[in-house]
Amino acid sequence: MNLSSIDIPNQVQRLVQLGGKFAVPLYSCDKIIFEFIKNIEHNFKKLQSSVHNTIRNKSITIINSVFSKFKKKNLNKIKIYKLIYITKQFLKNNSNIIFTRADKGNTTVAMDKDDYITKVNSMLQDEKTYKICEHVEKRIRKKSKFLNMADFLDTTIIKMGNSLIFDWYQKPTYSGRFLNFMSQHPISQKKGVLYGLVDPAFHLSHPMFHEKNLKFIVKILLDNDYPKDFIFYNMNDRIKTLINRQNKVTELQPMRREKIKWFSIPYVEGVSEKFKNIINGMCQKVCFFSMNKLNYFIKAQKDPMSRGAKRNVVYKINCNQCEASYIGQTGRKLDTRIAEHKKHINSVSSSHSVITDHRMEFSHEFDWNNCEILDVERYYNKRLVSEMIYINRQKKGLNLQTDTDALGHTYTDILNKI
Ligand SMILES: [Zn+2]
Questions:
Q1: Would strands 285-289 and 262-266 be described as parallel, antiparallel, or unpaired?
Q2: Which residues surround ligand 1, an ion (CB under 5 A)?
Q3: Residues 368-381 pLDDT 10s
């Protein structure tokens, strides 16, 4: 929906319409490999140390397969990268436009920034807004009484003679947007989307509406780029399951639920699935999460944070006079941590600093204002692993060798290949 004063090019529309949850396949191998290593090591917190090395060694084979995966051309991927490039350019040239999520319904809305700010302010001050809502609600209730139909949750109740029949109903704010098939999500999640549509259509509606509703679902799924074969195969399958379930008298048995421990790993199509073979059975199950979501564009109403205000970062400071660099991590604001490095030289404390040593020994100064952010990672443990990976990759690093001891040597070969 475009509420802004600017015409939005088709290609930009196509991208933002995919929604904030759409996961874009990562562009480069290195980022994927770093994320795998970070998460494998992070999962070890939940596992006995005796299995760590076995898992590490087996994971190496899987991580290695990322390289060959990236050599193959993927047309869908190239299409999306093009759209992202065009969208970035568009946002750069039209800094007054923002994309945000509609309050209701799964829709992306484009607005003028000034307009958005004025609207939010007036909404907060205007008490009438609430009165209007009440009024509209009453009117809808009156109307539905009149029609013998009441829209209740996702069901429309229709009075037919003396009986009530039900039909599945979509709210007026219904956008028809679901997780797009091209998103870097496991196939199970895409089946889940289909089940999420078929199940209510089946359970909440009278059989006379089934055909109409299922046709409608096919249309929705096609709109979200689901292939026909996928839709028909899984729809048939699901309906069979639902009918079987209905016919079965289910005996309720108290389920003994053991707490499942999850081994979570980023999802990369054709690669991440392989982790199931090595993890399942080690009293853990594999679960996937998606990286690189389009939220980046769509939550844009926040003003971009300055580099120094960012928290949870892995950073690199370069020496102005030579190739030397230092890599560190902090959960606090980057500016705060950098100020500490800078001031350390004046402190009387006996704490050791390799940066201070370098400044004293060579009379070199660091480029404090152009500190690079290498990674942003909320979890402390993953941030530590990330820091070690980057230290390992430094050419002329000042970090001490012991800083990377915990990473182990298993990953050295892979990291050298990147
Ligand atoms: Zn230097």
A1: parallel
A2: 319, 321-322, 324, 364
A3: 999 999 999 999 99
